[in-house]
Structures are given as C-alpha cells and as structure tokens.
Amino acid sequence: MVLTVVVPAVLLWPIAGFVAGPRRVSGPATAVAAWVVATVLAVMAGVAGTVLLLGRLPDHGEGELMGAATAGIALAAVLAVPSARRASPAMRRWAPPPARLPDDLLAVFSSRSAHGAELAELLRELAEALRRHWQLSAVHLWTAEEGALRCSVSVPRPAEPPGDVGATDIRLLRRVSVAGSGWLHSWLPHLLQGRTDCELRLAPAVHGRDVLALVVVERDDDADRFGEAEERALMEVAQRLAMVLRNRELDERLGDTLRHLRRINQQLEESSSRLVTEADAARAAIERDLHDGAQAHITGLVAAIGRVRDSLCRAARFGDRERAACLADLDALTERVKEAADALRDLAHGIYPAVLTDFGLRAALKAVAARSAAPVTVDVPDSTRYAPGVEAAVYFCCAEALQNAAKHAPGASVSVRLWESQGRLHLMVRDDGPGFVPASVHRGRGLLNMEDRLRALGGELTCESAPGAGTTVCGFVPLRKEA
User: Could you tell me the pLDDT band of residue 229, with boundaries at 50, 70 and 90?
Assistant: First the structure.
C-alpha cells in the first residue's frame, strides 16, 4: 500500500515540470508531491523503527499494535508541517533577536541619527553591537572635537580612558584604511598603552580630507585572529560612519542656518513694524503741529479780517465807493486765507487724519469717501478699534486705492469693505471702471507703498484687474484688537 502512494508521487514530480498542461501548476504540484513523499517516508521510517525495536517481524497478535503505531506515525507526519508553521511565530517572539550585521547596524544608526537621536547614545549602541557581532574584547570610538580626536565611547569602560589624537596624528590617519598593532606601534604608540596582551585593528572614518572619527577594536590574543573579511567589514563600517557623521554635521549646520534666518526674519519684521509705527507717529505729530500752529494762526487771521470788515462797515468817514472797494478787497483776501486754511487742512489730513486717531477706521474712511469726486460706498464694522499700526496701514491703503480709482477710473463707482476672518482684518476696494492688463502696467510707487505697509505687519496685498472688468485691490493684516 505504501508503494502505491510513493511510486506515483515520485514519478509525477519530475513529469509535472515537462508536460505542457501540468507545467502551469508545476509549483503547487511540486509542493504537494514533496509533502506526500516526505509524509510517506516518515511513516515508512516509523514502521521500520518499530520493527527494529521489536527485533523481529510482528506476528498475528501484534498486527493491531503495528496498525495503531502506523496510524499514529502517519498522523504525526501529516500534522508536523502545519504545527511547525503555527509554532514558528511564537518561537520568534520569545527568541532573542539575532545579531545585526554591520550594514544593518549602520542603516539603523543612519536612520536614528536623521531623526535627531543623541550622538553619544548612537555611538554606544554601535560599539556594543560591533562587540557582540565580532566577539571582541573591547571597542573604542573617537570623534572629532576642536581639531582633535577624543574618545567618546569605550565598551567596556576602561580603568583609564584612552588619550586624545592630535592634529599631527590625524594627518597620518588620512592615509590609512585599516591598520594593526604593528602600524600603531610604529606611528601611534600612545594608543597601545595598556593594550599589550591583545590584537588591535584601527580604521579611521575619513570624508574628503577630514578625519571625522576613529574606530579601534580589540580581541584577546587567545581568541581567533582578525581575518581579511573582518578587516574589509571594519573598513566599510568606518566609511559608512564617516558618511553618517558628515550628514549629521550638515544637518546641524542647516538647522543652525535656518534658525539664524528665522531670527533675522523676525528681527526684520519687528524693525519694519517699528519703522512704520514711528513714521505714523511722526505723521501724527506733524498733523498736530499744523493743526495747533499754522492752521490756528490762519483761522485767527480770518477772524481778524472779519472784524476789520465789520469795523469798516461801521465807519462813517468812508464814502460808499471807498467802503465798497475796501470791503471787496477784504472779501477777496478772506477767500484766499480760507483757501490756504482748506489746503493746510487737507495737507494735515493727508499726513495723518485726526479723525482716525479719535474715531477709528469707519469714520476716517467715510471722511475720505465724502471728499472723493466719485460715488463711494463704505462697508466697515462700527465701534471696532485696532492697534494704531493696523488702523494706519489699512486706512492709508484704502485711501491710496481710492485715489488711484479716481485717477484712472474717473466717474466709476467705488466700494470699500472691511471684515474680520481667521484672525485677520481684510480690506477690499473695488471699482467698476475700464480696468487694465496688470502685466502691461508699471507698478507705481503708490501700490508699492501699500504692499510695504501691509507686509511690515505680516500681511499681503493683491491687485486684480482685466479690461472691462474693473479693478479690485484686496489685502489683509494680522489682527490685534485693542479696547
């Protein structure tokens, strides 16, 4: 019976790889045939072992025993493969992890270094892994610090730490790939102090002309000597270590540069904000001086001229003709003084409007709209005050946009809108004028001043237009409310 199962399985196994039909399923067929053959052979081996233990062929009375033994052996053989598959994950979970090869060690070292792990911790893990993998008695790692190589990690920790490697010795290490005790005895004998009963290998981690690290491994004299394959692996470890350390150094420099740029950018923003604030304060001071000084004198002069006119009207010694001529001259002078006062008022308002300081953006923008020749609608939240710099920036941007609309789109309707969203104060000035092609128009000083004002406070400004579609100026500034 056993032969009737084994013979067809053995014959079908090689035939499955050559016949066109079975070839498509030769992989599964091969696996099944191999499992069948292995199971049958295991059963035959079990039966043969039972016969050998008995020392003779079983008689008629022992046939049932042999049948039961054969069935048990067959069941065990059938269940062996799936049982092993189920048990292997549990065994892998409980078994200790295998020792990593140097390439795997350095791959993990590179990955953890890139994620910001401490260098001392990484070097210690690398040294301990190398010691386990190559069955070393000790591992020492030097790293570059201030023009010298200092021992950063020693596994195990020695009673006396190894000395530093100076600049002269570093120049020697540039020309070495892997060196042994003889080379150290000739060129760097101080590294051999206290290490006369062991075999050493040294490998510098060189990148370009810089020696970034030094790897020294020790093995007891009674242990296996270092082979050529281990020396090549040690050299690869040093090369990969140099690359990792160089990348880490570049990452640190890049991080320092980025932090420096962020600090400079913050300082520039603060400086720009201070400049804008100081300029607005200077404008406000000039407006106060004009209002309290020259404008007040002109107003007093107008009042004095009015009083003189009244006196002339009451004077009896003047004839009607002379009085009328004098009154006409006084009226003309009064009008000229009023015109000067109006011009001075407009100048003071352009420098820094007092209404903005006293009543906020809504009142100041309505005042600008009232002086505009074009119809202007103002949609601004009422009773809301912001930081003086924010109010000044938004006000002058809107005033400049209204002036541009009056200049380039005369007669067009203009709308001014302010609103808050996501911690920002947004502005929009839109007109229904003829529009233009932005790429074909030179950016004027007014638009640049608007952009500079908003950017100094961390905001942005955009200008969109198209022929026949009007012009829209939009911008925002980070919001800082004040009571």
Answer: confident
The predicted structure's pLDDT at residue 9: 45
Question: 3-class SS at 212?
Answer: strand
Where do runs of H (alpha helix) occur along 139-227? 167-173, 181-187
- Torsions phi, psi of 117, nearest 5? -70, 155
Residue 14: asked if its preceding bond is cis (omega within 30°), the reply is no
Per-residue pLDDT, averaged over 145-164, amounts to: 81
In degrees and rounded to multiples of 5, residue 33 shows phi and psi of -65, -40
Backbone angles phi, psi at 24, to 5 degrees: -65, -25
Q: What is the pLDDT of residues 430-463, one digit of tens each?
A: 999 888 888 777 777 778 878 888 888 888 899 9
Tokens 């039909």 map to which residue?
21
- Measured in degrees and rounded to the nearest 5, phi and psi for residue 480 equal -135, 100
Percent of the residues in the chain that have a pLDDT greater than 70, as a whole number: 65
- Written as six digits, the tokens of 347 are 């100048």
Q: Specify the pairing of strand 376-379 against strand 414-421.
A: parallel
CA distance 305 to 154: 100
Tokens 């420098």 correspond to what residue? 351
What is the average pLDDT score of the chain?
Answer: 75
Q: Pairing relation of β-strands 179-180 and 414-421?
A: unpaired
Listed in sequence order, the residues at least 6 apart from 149 whose beta carbon sits closer than 8 Å to its beta carbon are: 142, 143, 164, 165, 169, 170, 211, 213, 214
pLDDT at 474: 94
Dist. CA 131–CA 398, nearest whole Å: 73
CB 178 within 8 A of CB 247: no
Give residues with Cβ within 8 angstroms of 419, minimum separation 6: 381, 425, 426
pLDDT of amino acid 476: 93
Return the residue matching tokens 């003829």: 434
Please tell me the distance from the alpha carbon of residue 231 to that of residue 410, in angstroms, as a whole number.
86
Kindly calculate the radius of gyration of the chain based on its CA atoms and give it in whole angstroms.
48
Contact by Cβ (8 Å): 132, 99:
yes
